[in-house]
Amino acid sequence: MNKTVLISGAGIAGATLAYWLGRNGFDVTVVERASAQRSSGNPIDVKGPAVDVVESMGVMPELRAAGSEVDRMSFVDATGRTRSRLRLSAFQGGAGSREVEVARADLAGILLEAAKEFAEIRWADSISGIEQDAGGVDITLDSGAATRYDYVIGADGLHSNVRRLLFGAESEFLRHLGMYAATLPVEKAFGDEREVVMFNQPGRAITVHPSKGKAVAAFLFRRTPVPDLDHRDLALHKRLVADAFAGEIGIFADVLDQLRAAEDIYFDSVSRISLPHWSIGRVALLGDAGSSLSLFGDGSTLAIAGAHTLAQELARTPDQPRIAFDTYERRHRVLVEPKQRGFRAAEAFMVPATSAGIVARNAAARFMR
Ligand SMILES: Cc1cc2nc3c(=O)[nH]c(=O)nc-3n(C[C@H](O)[C@H](O)[C@H](O)COP(=O)(O)OP(=O)(O)OC[C@H]3O[C@@H](n4cnc5c(N)ncnc54)[C@H](O)[C@@H]3O)c2cc1C
Description:
This protein has 2 domains: 4-68 and 98-172 and 272-343, FAD/NAD(P)-binding domain, CATH 3.50.50.60; 177-271 and 345-365, D-Amino Acid Oxidase, Chain A, domain 2, CATH 3.30.9. The strands form 4 sheets. It has a 7-stranded mixed beta sheet with strand order 5-4-13-14-15-12-16, with helices on both faces. α1 packs parallel to α4 (104-115) and α9 runs antiparallel to α10. The chain is built from 12 helices and 18 strands. The longest helix has 21 residues, at 321-341. It is of the alpha/beta class and 369 residues long. Flavin-adenine dinucleotide (FAD) binds next to α1, β3, α4, β12 and α8.
């Protein structure tokens, strides 16, 4: 009989894993807390090792059709005058021009469409209980359904439910990195379809990123952690952003006004998730659930590459979870750990803490190719 797998989370990692496990003959169910696939979101890259994975899934034409056309980033002052500029090819991974940038939810949606050939998706539900023994994992869902699976994978993101239920409280694994990020769709880009615009002041940055005739703004700011931040308190999130960007921000004041008026924004701390082990028994973590670096670590590429590695290892030793999970972890940590170590460099480049740092970054950007 085929091995049964429950994946928590139909995001980038969960959808990719569902596809590859299904293609390898596993019987796959995905449970997703949201009630439907959303669209758009922040544009993110599919780079390096993830490119081969999505090409083998046959979804590259869809990703290219949904992808943005950006090829440069301009660093501007509050009047909009360009101070420096770099070609985004400077950030390309090993797959060069085969790499693509797609809105986050569109990427997850395209991967999930491919997975639907092999997997059943249960929307608007979530795991409420996990009990395991040597032979399987007993799962209870919020909806009341109770089923036994051979394996369960937590691909449910930075604030993973599976991790909380089985591995321990989030505070044990999450380290706040002294920064917050907010994103929202905005009315228009500042440049053309190929240009990401970034405005910096010490310790804070605003980017406006065009994608398919739309644009997404991101506000990044350094700040000490807010104790017991309520992840659903929209008014508080807006206030934190507005306080962080108080003062003269020139032509970007309009983007801040759009945030103040928005009915929905993405808001979270920039945090690192790290665990000593990504599996316990027959349950393993994948993607941001096990190793997030928020927006600074090629998380989508790692989610796709990790899903492919995990599916390969489960297919190789389907009756030996210890071997499959340990080998997945050993292989995938080789990609994850350098990214986690590189956080400070990425942060200093994107959100310099001082005026001198902004000048130095702008000077360095001129030489990046
Ligand atoms: C603002 C921002 C910008 C970013 N920019 C980039 C970038 O440029 N390049 C890059 O590589 N990465 C970027 N990232 C990181 C990237 O988005 C993540 O690393 C990637 O999405 C991780 O994929 P995932 O599938 O592990 O998690 P997610 O994409 O977060 O998916 C998790 C899924 O689990 C679901 N879920 C959550 N809780 C439950 C539950 N209890 N039960 C069931 N389902 C649940 C969620 O609804 C979601 O569908 C960015 C992140 C942010 C926040």
